[in-house]
UniProtKB/TrEMBL annotation, chains A, B, C, D:
The organism's place on the tree of life at top rank: Eukaryota
UniProt-listed Enzyme Commission number(s): 4.2.3.5
Keywords recorded for this protein, A-Z: Amino-acid biosynthesis, Aromatic amino acid biosynthesis, Lyase
Annotated organism of origin: Gonapodya prolifera (strain JEL478)
Keyword Amino-acid biosynthesis: yes
Keyword Transmembrane helix: no
Enzyme class, spelled out: lyase
GO cellular component, one term: cytosol
Pathway: Metabolic intermediate biosynthesis; chorismate biosynthesis; chorismate from D-erythrose 4-phosphate and phosphoenolpyruvate: step 7/7
Protein's name in the database: Chorismate synthase
Lineage: Eukaryota, Fungi, Fungi incertae sedis, Chytridiomycota, Chytridiomycota incertae sedis
Oligomer and partners: Homotetramer.
GO MF term (any one): FMN binding
């Protein structure tokens, strides 16, 4: 319902016009240094009203830590975070109450709850994402400290204006050029930083493309219209072995996380939809030794995940956002009672949510990988406590078969735990 | 881990070389007529070896109902279903043990579990999906009986060969033509049936496109290569109100479900990635009265879901599958120990998994909506038991505001439960 | 971790010295009239400092509704409730930091979290129960409105002073007298009200026993000591059919709920430990027609639950509380470092927590049955949507077998849903 | 519903007359040596028909490992275990169908599911516990290997015949004698083994008491009656730090686990109900250094758990079982239709289930602690990965305060992880 995760459990609360929005995080590791200064910056990045591209309302979302820390460290108990709503009027019961807003949640919330609240589909408001971003800032603090994980998202397209993606595969095409474009893409993902992204108002690190995106957004603003786009996100330095093999594959958790963000319409991991046209002998990522006794992959069409489990390479994915449903022009539609009419435009609205979506995409990525990490830590720790087994032919990859059809039982004294342990230092 | 759903809970078990694969389904409603004849057909549709386009091995997967039914009806207790593995050899410890297969799960399973089983990433095998398809057949039996739900998937593209999708949006383009193409698309989704789909070996209902798909697959086969594609799925007659508003939006559950299928790389709902280019005033779906006191939408860019909640329109989505990782040609890669080498090809492999993926996509869709339905039934039933409240201004959409800024408290005697109850008959 | 329930999900947060304690409730049915006035009274009943029997500190716990309601009705979205801590000092780093308090959580919290917070085992503090009591007040509001459920707890013993329990069974004893005592017990449970209980400071409705309890508590106070006791709780008007058949039997959920209250040491349902001495032919509760087409039971040794499922009779159970660990006398013990020493007494402490435990026991009972109810509502609603089956021999209890060894297939047109529906009007 | 645990997830299936009963275990650590020989013995101990005290039917429950192991080691994937039912007749549709059996689940299952199956409350049958015992044998294999955990249960009372429990507390009584009796009790729990228990048919290690228990059981058998009793269980060598602080206290999980066993009526941990009469200054367990840098407790009234968290001392608890509801004499009761009548006795039934309950109590204890252990391993592993913090006054118990009111910030370089790590080697 309103909870995400099984070991890093995030439960958000609040809608547009209640007293406060916030989150309770259960499962925060004890001993993490944590203060408001770790959380507020991401909330600020999420906040609207920062440039003339976004809606002018300044929500001034100041976070309060209600519980779970003492003297600047987490206790291991639930961390509750709260942001007060400044506008707590129970809503404006006028035209909005006659018309369900098209492509909004007003109508479906009424279908679901039988309740017609002033805030319409209150929980579907972007304001609900405050709790997510706050919870993710705590997760990120841990992920950075413990593993040096880096999660960076950026606007990859606005309408048809897009950061040059790799060309589509064609048997006839220049293979070398095809691979070069993918290499450039992987190189971009290797280097891009939040500083790069935030240096530009539209949060696209490619300044030329950013200029055209800005123009496209202003065009929508001019036309009292809205426009969608895509956000790309990369996760670097994530330990391998994360993700559960069956229903909770890491990409499935990420897809779940991303499609839970308001206004999203799609998700793709690694080569994604474009990859469906690349034949297997090209798409397969060959292994190479990385020099530290591990294996890496030469290419990364897989997007850092194989069989649902992280392999240590960079994870990257793309999320589609539709044009915002609230627009500054009137719309022909029907009232709740089914009468045809015109829903008048009211106020000015954000013509493009993409720049604000960037920290939310990063946030949901943090929550997904943090939960996967805590699950895998339990498995690894449990396996490491099994005493060495005298004969254990199927454990460890270092074991070499002597013949083709039967396992050679060797007393190698190696244990699952140790083998696993060495994987992600 | 290996469980999907919270009220319709599906737990699969089994890997390639163990005694059996199967599933335990907890939460099956009591009183559903159920026999092997309800489950076996979908397993047969999933089975490889049916045409010369798929791998020749015939697995003959006969399902056994171990528990949960009596005299042909479900008891409401866990339904356990089992399919024996015919090939239970603990695997072939030869070359496959030296090389982790590129873009397979062999390497990541070793990273995750510290165990190198003969079947490599055993749970990532398509064979694991038997349990899912069987569990979904039970869900479908209920969904059909209780709501007349129809779930139909088909192959929408193989490589670059694709069922003509609606054209991309462009401000300059012919708006009428743009809308006509989308209308054709929605019409196709309204009418397509499993019979249509199964009438063609590649499971694409458009015969001309199917011919070109077949050619593309045979080309891959010839080249000892593999090729990916996309599957589109439509869900019809689903009650409105399904999906939870925050993390468990219906599209998020569907995305989770789809990305948990082996070899998937992407998911999009409704207008999807193409929709990111459509401006808000076009993309918004205006409401219209449906004549039965409800509202429908004129267009369906939303894909039947708004704010994470089903609105009663058809739900449709697309899933991307990469080219199969197992190919019939040798590959340059590295051994588990990091030595460069060539993994020799062995046997013949399915050049395109798309046709077999169709029932699996349908299955995961069934599981996702069945779980969402049981959750919503609890909420509706709970609300319907609250006695009428004397004044209840925010309940029911039929209430009309008298003034613009304050709610008019009316003693309308209408209750949440009744209002909800009437929504999905 | 810090969440209770699967459909009525209660997540508490907060420890002694943080900014606030509280709770997020997910799964509250929409349309429930709810205000602070529904929650505050139970918090007041929980509050210490009300009589000279309890600790004098007045915490003045005022509840704030942060989210989930509008115009006095629940929205169906998460209800967040918060109570500020008045004393937010990060603790007193003196002697308490040298000594883990005996039979407190200071030592085990350090073992668990590796963190030594000023509040010791902060989450094990009775203050954490504020969130539970608040969440339960919301559940109770619904349970009362929708089903007329009544939950009443009272102090049944303090030390050796006890409300006369039924005599132990002995084959030699007077059977009539034995049954009479149980009948009196069941009669007491049928009639006792919260008003009766709150009319007496020790919250025992039997005034004579209450006088002796009070004396026992004052004796402990005098001796700078503490004393335990038991609380009995009865749940009336609960719909039948609640509780899951296997791991989540209703008594198992209740036991879980009760043993999660600080300082509890035991739980018994119905005849409980005394019942282990009663032979089967006496202990079995024979069925009788109740006149409305249902069955009741003549006796109620079962405590209203059979096979883990409520049968419509009153549910009653007993909870054991140990003497409070914090006492007003010094104690020989060891420091964290293992040095022998004397932990000096500090301040005055509540000699007996039993009276304050009464609303907490009621609260946890509410949470357990509310969750079980929402689960069963989903199952019932799902079954009721299955269309009538032509032949359905195993459905409905009204069907009569014609012969002893084979089922007679009759076309009775009765359906699971209808049969179930009539059970709990 | 039918699942127990969150990281060691056990899902059972099957009822009396279906094809098989069994269990799927998700979350088994990889690399555990496991074969049928690890599981069958506990199933044999659970099996009826072993002495003339139990029901003569020999079910011959042979377990099959369907998945999750290879070459004798667990893979980390779901382990599915199955036991075929020999008697798969869909039941005897005679008198049992007219009468719901008193204090059985026939009536409540009909209320819950609207289905009247031949096996009555099929899942409430003791046969369902086969899956639990099998799953627990796997957990025990791990617990023994990794931690040397020992779990031993025994019959502590049959009817009024009881293994001498410690005397009740009385201020007037001989304190020394009181403590001596508790010391004997704790000594008994320290030493008792499964071999001791199984050496006696009634599974009570005290032979004199066992003789009187046997007589009491035979008396019940003679009288065509049944009799209840209690089982005591001790868990030794459990690592400290297990159990979650709030709702999922270790004793709450144990209580949940125990009350989910058919026919149970009560649970008490440590001093239990008797402990409610012991004043705080006696009941508190003072700390003592154990010589290895840790603390133990001089007494163990707490039962090895404080604040819901294991402290490293022995955990012990008692479970109450009512007299079996199925008796070999006729009973006055009502039919499903509410007509008075006599339910005739049929066959011979087990007069006392206590000896068979012993392995089931052990099994549920294993499942509860295994799940708690995996949760804590994740937390410990996560904390251990946080790099040393320069100043961290609240971490580690070795830090000594310098003054009473303010923390002295010391750069101790000690980290949560290390402190935790050293706790349970």
């Amino acid at each position: 319902m309103s909870t995400f995760g099984s070991l890093y459990r995030v439960t958000t609360f609040g809608e547009s016009h209640c007293a406060a929005v916030g989150v309770v995080i259960d499962g925060v590791p004890p001993g993490v240094p944590l203060g408001v200064e770790d959380i507020q910056p991401q909330l600020n990045r999420r906040r609207p009203g920062q440039t003339n591209l976004t809606t002018p309302r300044d929500e001034k979302d100041r976070v309060n830590i209600l519980s779970g820390t003492e003297l600047g460290y987490t206790l291991g108990t639930p961390v509750a975070l709260m942001v007060k709503n400044e506008d707590q009027r129970p809503g404006d019961y006028s035209e909005m109450n006659l018309y369900p807003r098209p492509s909004h949640a007003d109508w479906t919330y009424l279908l679901k709850y039988g309740v017609k609240a002033s805030s319409g589909g209150g929980r579907s408001s972007a304001r609900e994402t405050i709790g997510r971003v706050a919870a993710a800032a705590v997760a990120e603090k841990y992920l950075t400290l413990a593993h040096g994980v880096e999660i960076v998202a950026f606007v990859a397209s606005v309408g048809h204006v897009t950061v040059a993606p790799p060309e589509g595969y064609s048997a006839a095409a220049d293979h070398e050029k095809f691979m070069k474009q993918w290499d450039s893409w992987w190189t971009l993902l290797k280097g891009v930083s939040r500083a790069d992204v935030d240096a530009v108002d539209v949060r696209c690190p490619d300044k030329d493309v950013a200029d055209r995106m800005r123009a496209r957004i202003l065009e929508a603003k001019e036309a009292q219209d809205s426009i969608g786009g895509t956000v790309v996100c990369v996760i670097r330095n994530l330990p391998p072995g994360l993700g559960e093999p069956c229903f909770d594959k890491l990409e499935a958790k990420l897809a779940h996380a991303m499609l839970s963000i308001p206004a999203t319409k799609g998700f793709e991991i690694g080569s994604g939809f474009a990859g469906t046209e690349i034949p297997g002998h090209v798409h397969n990522d060959p292994f190479v030794a990385t020099g530290d006794g591990k294996l890496g992959t030469k290419t990364n069409f897989s997007g850092g995940i194989q069989g649902g489990i992280s392999n240590g390479e960079n994870i990257y994915f793309r999320v589609a956002f539709k044009a915002a449903a609230t627009i500054s022009q009137s719309q022909h539609t029907a009232t709740f009672d089914g009468e045809d009419g015109v829903l008048a435009a009211k106020g000015r609205h954000d013509p493009c949510v993409l720049p604000r979506a960037v920290p939310i995409v990063e946030a949901m990525a943090s929550l997904a990988v943090m939960d996967a990490l805590l699950l895998q830590l339990s498995r690894k720790a449990a396996a490491s406590l099994i005493p060495p087994q005298p004969i254990n032919p199927i454990l460890t990859g270092k074991w070499k078969p002597q013949s083709s059809s039967a396992p050679t039982i060797v007393a190698n004294g190696e244990i699952a735990g140790e083998a696993v342990e060495s994987d992600d230092k």
